[in-house]
Amino acid sequence: MEADPLAPALFAIKLGLYGSALLAAGLGLHASLNIIAREDRPRALRTAAVAGLTALIFAALRLGLANVQLGGANALLDPATLSWTWPALGPSSTAVVVGAVAMAAGWLLRSSIATAIGAIAFSISFGLTGHTQALESPGLAPWALGAHVLIAAFWFAGPITLWPARSLEEATLAARVTRFSKFAVAAVPALFALGVWLGLLLAGGWTPLLTSLYGQLLIAKLAAANFALALGAYNKSVVTARLQTAPETGQRALRLTLGLDAVLFLIALAAIAAATSLTGPPSP
Hints:
Blueprint: H1 7-32, H2 41-71, H3 79-109, H4 112-127, H5 141-156, H6 158-161, H7 170-203, H8 206-211, H9 213-245, H10 247-277
Helix pairs in contact: 1-2, 1-3, 1-4, 1-5, 1-10, 2-3, 3-4, 4-5, 5-7, 7-9, 9-10
């Protein structure tokens, strides 16, 4: 099969879309769950709104690129071509629009309900297109993917929410990390179980998961995510205590683990973007 010359562009667009959508959803969740203190919430909500708008731009670019892939450069804004691409990308794009509007409303109105709706909408958008929708019998897979993304978004925003900035009081930081950890402990098993189940379902079993490029990219994503979860466990069991007993030492450790988290999240994002743009599920 001839390689698609636009595949690298699609990879870059999906990387931007996934990253901005996860960041918006994650910050929206942190605000809705009161992980972020009330006085710090406006800044976080503004960042979530900007990330939501960025996701909307990337969603529009994804749709435009799909038109070009189908009909050539002149089909970028062609309504006839759009009638072919919209059924596949329309529901997901609509969910991104809802998410972006909800995040903007959450920022302007200081509404936790709006930000929660935005986080859910962005997460659902992942399951409304792509490989789960291409399954012969999608069943609960798109909804399971949405739940998986929602939990992943909670983790993805951690390095920003929990970063020990100089302006953040020690007691506030310790409380924020403690509250984040309480939710994280409950989310870890679901995140791992959903990730493994979806990987097996999309790849078609253990053998194609282990031997195909698509499956190996999913494994790389799972491995990066699991390392990030392990760092989260270390933060909960060790760093949280140090923040209370030896704040300076705890903050140094937290900066290190959060920096590693950010790198691992980028690896996971790149793996998923590559799996959905540069390759695809193996043939049965």
